[in-house]
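User
Take a look at the entry that follows and flag anything odd:
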Amino acid sequence: MKKPYPGAVPATLMAAVLFTPLKAFSEETLQQVDQHHLNDLVTHGQGNDAFLQAFEAGDELSEFDFAANHGVGANIGEGRRFTRFPRADLDGDREWATHFPKREGGANATSCISCHSAPFANGAGGIAMNVVLDPDHTGDPSQYLERNTTSLFALSIPQRLAEEMSVELYLQREGARQLACSKGAATVALVAKEIEFGTLSLTRTNADPCDVKIDTSQLAGIDADLVVRPFGWKGNHATIRSFTRGAAHNELGLQATELVGAQDGDYDGVINELSVGDVTALTLYMAALERPVSTVELAEIGIIDLTDVQSADIAAGKHLFATVGCSSCHVPSMTVANPIFSEPSRVAGYADILFPDGSNPGSHGLGPETAIEFDMRLDPPNNQVLLKDGGVYHLGALETDAKGKGIARWYSDFKRHDMGPALSDPSDPLGVGASVFLTRSLAGVGSTGPWLHDGRATTLEEAILAHGGEATASRHAYAAMSDADAARIVTFLESLILFSADEAH
């Protein structure tokens, strides 16, 4: 089907970028970000400066082409630093299979944007950028896992929504605990932002002091600790920070100090490859990147033109998307109660109590007292667009409704679902189920093909028809539609795009 408009829309001549980058931490050569410098800014009432400096440093780090002296790559073996495929066969002293933490794949790249590049920097990756993993070190290609590269835009949205959802669930669990202490037993149906997560059953085992046993066997789509984990295809990372240091280790071979301490875990001859400040900067950068938008929104503010027919097809497709049940998992929008993103997080379950290396984050200067914050509605520096009438439209990390509340259009319920045997992985290293995946966000989906966890779908229709398991009924409903209605759903999905005013130049 011919697309009526491009999948990624840069600003046209009617728009101009107002944001001018600040001087970054590094110019020609890379300099590690000093967490204590950022802390000093916060302590002296310059929190916004700390945020902007961290954002610019994160931008530099994401684009930087790391070299061997920075610690990029790893001792793969055979005199090599990089591999596209896992090498469990290289199990000699200091070789790939002996690295720590346990290496799942790679190292396979020298920069973040070498993989996150479609349709532009910080975006997704084509099929050639798929990641091949062997978490169990089988050395058997039939057991390898394959993962398509997702975009990095506005990652504050899923983390902040997950934080708020977990807080709701924590409160419901505590209410049930108090009821069980009083009555002897209690059952609570867990609901956060109108998403159902199953039930908890609690039984009092001791009266004074009260102690309860919690039955988590009826939970749905979430771990027993009730921490909503919005990152990773399997929902295995709660925070941008955790996701970042894991990706740096596996894909770039850059081992963060907080991951391994002052050790050379990948035996490449370099230690302290990413400072605590570096990870903070990358986290805040990805958190504050511009959000995915829709062509409808861009048309409303005059950045692009849509015909009446195109607008009608998109509206009809959105309605049909809900009619066939797709929106029950790909939830179109949620309200963010508190739009302030904080790094580190102030929510239990979303900040490291101890770093993976066993050290206390506070000993490295990372703590809630000097957390760097920004308003997701107002502060993201990118995509401030000058309109033809002289007005400014700010495509921040969150939309803002008429009452000033933050609206997130992430198209996910942040739950894990069984997608059926056809999409199943050959193994289940995380123990969540080989066919179980986190609901993929559809924000920007019109710009980020190929689709599905391994990039097997070359069209959005292929992706829809590959759904099974809990999504079988929706797939059947879509397949039973007329060609015209099915095309309207695809048209709606194609309208959910990535947009960067920077790409106008």
